[in-house]
Amino acid sequence: MSNPGTEALQVRSSDDVVRVRQRVRALAVDAGLSLVDQTKIVTAASELARNMIDYAGGGKTVFEVVGSGTTRGVRLTFEDKGPGIPDIPLALKDGYTTGNGLGLGLGGAKRLSSDFVIESKVGLGTKIVITRWK
């Protein structure tokens, strides 16, 4: 496997969400994730990138292949300077939405990830780091 290092992509439009999905899929294949795990991390990434556009007007996604030997994975960081999330536990509940969606985005992304960390400050933005391990 080549070592792609850390890459970043600004996410401001639907076309950028497509680019995020494509890059995540390529890294997941490179890291040796199964087709199921590839699909899970791509779906989670798509949801989180879309949320950055819908709720924060855009942001940045950082891509990394992490681990060594047989313990490999893909780590993604989604960071925005949006309004922040005032109640993270509520935002993670299925059915809760502040927009027009189904309210499955954050909780779904968490379920699709091996590791999920969210930090948010009202008025300053949100940072979500997800990892899917092989």
Structure, briefly:
This protein has four helices and five strands, in the order βααββααββ. With 134 residues, it is of the alpha+beta class.
Structural features:
38% helix, 134 residues, globular, alpha+beta, Heat Shock Protein 90
Structural summary, described in words:
The chain is α+β, with helices and mostly antiparallel strands and 134 residues long. The protein has a single domain (7-133), classed as Heat Shock Protein 90 (2-Layer Sandwich), CATH 3.30.565.10. The protein has four helices and five strands; from the N terminus they run βααββααββ. Strands 1-2-3-5-4 form a five-stranded antiparallel β-sheet, covered by helices on one side. The mean pLDDT is 90.
Question: How are the secondary structure elements laid out?
Answer:
Elements: E1 7-11, H1 14-30, H2 35-56, E2 59-68, E3 71-80, H3 88-91, H4 105-112, E4 115-121, E5 125-133
Antiparallel strand pairs: 1-2, 2-3, 3-5, 4-5
Helix pairs in contact: 1-2, 2-4
CATH architecture: 2-Layer Sandwich
Q: Decide which structural class fits the backbone.
A: alpha+beta
CATH class: Alpha Beta
By DSSP, the count of extended strands is 5
Give the low-pLDDT segments.
none
Q: What name is given to the CATH topology?
A: Heat Shock Protein 90
- What's the arrangement of strands in the largest beta sheet? 1-2-3-5-4
- Which series of helices and strands comes N to C? EHHEEHHEE
- Individual helix count: 4
What Rg do the Cα atoms give? 14 Å
Mean pLDDT: 90
CATH level-4 homologous superfamily: Histidine kinase-like ATPase, C-terminal domain
CA-based shape: globular
Instruction: Give the % helix.
Output: 25-40%
Strand content: 25-35%
- How can the largest sheet be summarized? 5 strands, antiparallel
Give the termini distance in whole angstroms: 14 Å
